[in-house]
Amino acid sequence: MIVEERLRAMGLQLPPPLAVPPGVRLPFTPVRVVGDRAIVSGHGPQNADGSSAGPYGKVGAEVSVGEAYEAARGTALSILGDLSRALGDLDRIAAWVRVFGMVASAPGFDRQPAVINGFSDLVLEVFGPEVGAHARSAVGMAELPFGLPVEIEAEVTFRA
Amino acid sequence: MIVEERLRAMGLQLPPPLAVPPGVRLPFTPVRVVGDRAIVSGHGPQNADGSSAGPYGKVGAEVSVGEAYEAARGTALSILGDLSRALGDLDRIAAWVRVFGMVASAPGFDRQPAVINGFSDLVLEVFGPEVGAHARSAVGMAELPFGLPVEIEAEVTFRA
Amino acid sequence: MIVEERLRAMGLQLPPPLAVPPGVRLPFTPVRVVGDRAIVSGHGPQNADGSSAGPYGKVGAEVSVGEAYEAARGTALSILGDLSRALGDLDRIAAWVRVFGMVASAPGFDRQPAVINGFSDLVLEVFGPEVGAHARSAVGMAELPFGLPVEIEAEVTFRA
Questions:
Q1: C29-158: CATH superfamily
Q2: C27 has a chain A CB within 8 A of its CB
Q3: Could you give the 3-state DSSP secondary structure of residue A46?
Q4: Of A28, A56, A72, C2, whose CB count within 10 A is highest?
Q5: What's the mean pLDDT when you consider all of chain C?
Q6: Distance between CA A118 and CA B71 in Å, rounded?
Q7: Domain boundaries, given as residue ranges, for chain B
């Protein structure tokens, strides 16, 4: 459990499954495992109790780049939590493949990469440059569910 | 042809290939088959004659959540039509993998998941919880081609 | 080197790696190779010196469809440059798989396919209809990094 020990040493904790807000129905799986691929649904950051974490709003307006960087870092932890439950052990991850970083953007805000770096930095710190390397897009959305400022979907491969 | 019988029993019909509007050129394939993967281009709902189906506009403004849910359900039928032609038989689908649901969103509209549920609900009803399970994002776009309120791209794996 | 000869015969040149603007940090890889798949990060067009190429702004406002078509064509060259460095030889590409074409769109602009055709047309011209065929979405983003009017991510498979 090298990756999970590393997270603990960094003082980071993986959140439990998303506590779905009342009245909301999410008929899909957080991680779909097919062959040696694990495809990860769009995630946002969570609180320690599993609920969706703020801040909410558009980056470049209600939410600052620094806050959105932290939200992207928190999203990495949400995704690691679901990958840990889907794969049993994060050390099974063989390669990060694709990261699609979506930033709810106020008009004229074009620093999406600075936001999604919060995700990439954590993945590279925890998994190292070989396993952690990934292709990435960081782009500006009109709106995201529940007013999230950041939503990220991803794909990894893993070892049997 | 279990899946196609199930669709017929539900009174649902798969539309023919998209009737491309005059003056429009779409130089790509609706479904790209590579190995055991079928990658599905962005689709919208169709009429029975293959033409693009309305309503058009932004969800949260001209188009209601209920209408957009139906558009997402219609998009599932469009995709099933193209998958049926690409694979010969929908029973060959081994696993739904990834669904990327895009909703043209009026400012402040953040219930994209409630819209894309129209797609997920149909896939799960027709394919069941094991084959039909999928990773998903449901997000808010500034604009979609031809004024579509919903566009969905997807990936499935299939059996030889 | 059939593909690269064809590009030369067309008078086209592949740009060098992206010259990252000062003060920007992009902690990801332009192409992630996993098994026989090469997943390509979001790219925009480049100048011959590797810097990001204009025009900048929203399509349908500051940027015309014709200019954006050229930007999408330039993006294809950027991606081919990075694929060439990642794979050693573009002739190794076995199949174009997925093209996700993002167009920063002014309100009401819905001709994203006409823009991303600049990418698809070049790929099909250079690789031919069998290798070059691809699934595609062409959609309207609220904002793109650095004011880009077009950003494209992609996936190809390749031969050992």
A1: RutC-like (3.30.1330.40)
A2: yes
A3: strand
A4: A72
A5: 98
A6: 35
A7: 29-158
Determine, for residues C41 and A105 on separate chains, whether the beta-carbon distance falls below 8 Å.
Answer: no
List the single residue in B110, B135, B157 with the smallest CB-CB distance to A29. B135
Whether residue B110 and residue A25 make contact (CB cut-off 8 A), yes or no, is: no
ipTM value of the model?
0.97
Q: What is the pLDDT of residue C85?
A: 98
> Is B39 part of the contact surface with chain A (CB cutoff 8 Å)?
no
Residue C27, pLDDT score: 98
Q: How far, in Å, CA of A150 to CA of C79, rounded?
A: 26
Distance from CA of B49 to the nearest CA of A (A): 30
Q: Which of A142, A113, A105 is nearest to C52 (CA)?
A: A113
| CATH 3.30.1330.40 assigned to A2-12+31-46+53-158 | yes
**Amino acid identity, position A156:** V
pLDDT in tens, B55-105: 999 999 999 999 999 999 999 999 999 999 999 999 999 999 999 999 999
C15 CA: distance to closest CA in chain A (Å): 19
Mutating which of A20, A25, A26, A28 best tests the B interface, going by the most B Cβ atoms within 10 A?
A: A28
**What is the model's pLDDT at position C1?**
84
Predicted confidence (pLDDT) per residue in A67-89, tens digit: 999 999 999 999 999 999 999 99
Cβ of A143 and B112 within 8 Å? yes
Q: Is the pLDDT of residue A1 over 90?
A: no
Per the listing, tokens 């040493």 go with A9
Which residues in chain B are contacts of A157 at CB distance < 8 A? none
CB pairs under 8 A between A and C: 85
B25 and C CB contact within 8 Å: yes
- At C64-91, the pLDDT tens digits run 999 999 999 999 999 999 999 999 999 9
Instruction: Please answer whether residues B99 and B139 qualify as being in contact, where contact means their C-beta atoms are separated by less than 8 angstroms.
Output: no
| Average confidence (pLDDT) over C90-102 | 98
